[in-house]
Amino acid sequence: MAEVNDPFEMCDPIGFPRVDLHDLRALEIMQSPKKTLIVYENDQVWRGVWTDGRDFPKIVEPRWYGYSIGKWVDNTTFVVDTTGLDERTWLDNVGRPHTKDLRVEERFHRVNHDIMELTVTIIDPAYYTKPWNALDKYPLRLQSDNFDIREMVCSESEAAAYNKEISEQAAPTQPTADTKK
Questions:
Q1: Which residue segments constitute the domains of the chain, with CATH numbers given?
Q2: pLDDT over 80 at 160, yes or no
């Protein structure tokens, strides 16, 4: 089996902002008076976004999905700033790194009743010479009230069973000098 260094392939959490940038599937957004929750299909995780006007804490412990605060900048645009991201996470599926000082800005802009655009900006001066848009105006479509997010979780036991029953049968290992006799 090939060596893998992708944290997600080893069932570590996909982390943020990669959850937005890698195979973004369904997400659900729920609001309460002090917080907005974003629930992702990918690995069945949620992020809490504080919307009560608070600032970032002076010290933010590193987290897989960071510490997020959000605010409405106009009637159709919700901006979320996230910091405190664990350095073990990748920015995207390619494996771009980041430092502990990474800050991510998400802009959720409501285009019309059925479409919202998501823009994700990466800000990490230690790695990147200027902020850059990792995702620009990605369309999110409103689903019906009875839409159900599928379960999609990383399960080592299911991966092991798949490898044994499917992938190893399709591509058996080649004999090595030690096994040839």
A1: 11-142 (2.40.128)
A2: no
